[in-house]
From TrEMBL:
Pfam families: Transferase. The keyword tRNA processing does not apply. InterPro entries: CAT-like_dom_sf (IPR023213). This is Anthranilate N-benzoyltransferase protein, putative. Signal peptide: none annotated. Keywords: Acyltransferase, Transferase. Coiled coil: none annotated.
Length: 432
């Protein structure tokens, strides 16, 4: 659909209902927070119209419950300082309210990422470091002319990973739905991973100024079943029961490799980088409401001269992810040793031409449980990010299919979206 003209009707600052105690006024970021990219994590939740609902009353309820929620999530109402600490000064959260001159279904039937970005505060390329106020959190409440709403949220990756974002959103929803139901986050990331001097190590965050095109590809349950069987049916296959994330990630990696092989300057090595949640891999495991960045990257590599067998890619992906275990966590906690290892890996990669494909999975996140009191979302998405070769995987509303949000250079997307092998398993339309 064409770009729509959204009207901002109000902008205000929502502060915590209760001032943050003095002893909680400064929050040290962890070593893993220091390594996180300075971007905002986006999410948009769409809710259909409800009969006999006062939209003004709903808006007031959202703001009131947000204020109460910020009492527990107090760093999100603060500002970041240059020394990697958050000043929990209760400055508040930027909150926008808009009117949308179309129906909700006009947006969700065949989503256009350029339109989806309109339901979020800030531009997609907005950088947390370059932001004038270094705002950790901003929210946009969008009201469609049919009475449906979309809630758009951007939360700084410098203080939160995807799991933490969903923890906050569900806590806010719970406070709106049942004021007595309080989710209390745990801000102890720096205890597990003390901050380090990383002035001599600043990895590329992957953001590019080249034109990135983002499109959604839907894998339904039958297609996922076929991919999993395809990965495990070959003689000698090392992965007998690949997960749907392993199967889809490896498949998309193979199609991205096919594009790379058509270029005049061919890579010598292909690398798949998959974000891995550390909470359940630590011994003992962390509480699920541990807030911050608790993830690292599993890196699977594949030499360009080798035959591109799908089941081999799945095996490489599985092996890389399995190495993110408690021993790996111990190396992370010895930050200096981890930095030396990453420096060595970076030097090895720099000696050869490497084509990266980056993945992060939200498939197990309770996104479709976010109920503010008027039902669960009809649809949810985490739209474009200015990253080359980035894939975001999300479960569909039914929980059995997977939506892959693929970010590629414009010229690469032109090839990718017409790939017959890809389209035999996935569709860029709402239904397959």
């Amino acid at each position: 659909m064409t770009i729509i003209d959204i009207q901002i009707v109000s902008k205000e600052t929502i502060k915590p209902a209760i001032p943050t105690p003095h002893h909680l006024r400064n929050l040290k970021l962890s070593f893993l927070d220091q390594l996180a990219p300075p971007i905002y994590i986006p999410i948009v939740l769409f809710y259909p119209a409800k009969q006999n609902v006062d939209l003004l009353e709903r808006s007031l309820l959202l703001k009131k419950s947000l204020s109460k929620t910020l009492t527990q999530f107090y760093p999100l109402a603060g500002t970041m300082r240059e020394d990697f600490t958050f000043e929990c000064n209760d400055e508040g959260v930027e909150y926008f309210e808009t009117k949308v001159p179309c129906k909700l279904v006009d947006v969700t039937e065949n989503p256009d990422v350029n339109v989806l970005n309109l339901f979020l505060p800030f531009e997609p390329q907005q950088n947390c470091i370059e932001s004038k106020k270094q705002v950790p959190l901003a929210i946009q409440y969008n009201i469609f002319k049919c009475g449906g709403v979309a809630i758009g949220i951007r939360l700084s990756h410098l203080i939160a990973d995807g799991t933490s974002v969903i923890t906050f959103v569900n806590a806010w929803a719970a406070m709106s739905r049942e004021p007595g139901e309080v989710i209390i986050p745990i801000f102890e990331a720096a205890t597990h991973f003390p901050p380090r001097d990383i002035s001599m190590f600043r990895p590329s965050i992957g953001i590019t100024k080249e034109k990135i095109v983002t499109k959604r590809f839907v894998f339904d349950k039958p297609s996922i079943t076929v991919l999993r069987e395809k990965a495990s049916s070959r003689d000698g296959s090392q992965v007998k029961t690949p997960t749907r994330v392993e199967a889809i990630s490896s498949f998309i990696w193979s199609r991205q490799m096919a594009i790379a092989k058509t270029k005049p300057e061919r890579a010598k090595l292909y690398a798949a980088v998959h974000a891995v949640n550390l909470r359940e891999r630590m011994v003992p495991s962390l509480p699920k409401h541990s807030f911050g960045n608790f993830w690292r990257m599993a890196i699977a590599t594949f030499p360009a001269e080798m035959e591109q067998d799908y089941h081999v890619l799945v095996s490489h992906m599985r092996n890389a992810i399995s190495k993110i275990d408690n021993n790996y966590v111990k190396m992370l906690q010895d930050g200096d040793r981890y930095l030396k290892t990453m420096k060595m890996v970076s030097e090895q990669f720099s000696k050869s031409e490497v084509e990266f494909c980056n993945f992060t999975s939200w498939c197990r996140f309770p996104v479709y449980e976010v109920d503010f009191g008027w039902g669960k979302p009809a649809w949810a998405c985490s739209p474009s990010r200015p990253y080359k070769n980035l894939v975001i995987l999300m479960s569909d509303k039914g929980g059995e299919g997977v939506e892959a949000w693929v970010n590629l250079l414009e010229e690469d997307m032109a090839i990718f979206e017409r790939d017959p092998e890809l389209l035999s398993f996935a569709s860029s339309k709402t239904g397959k």
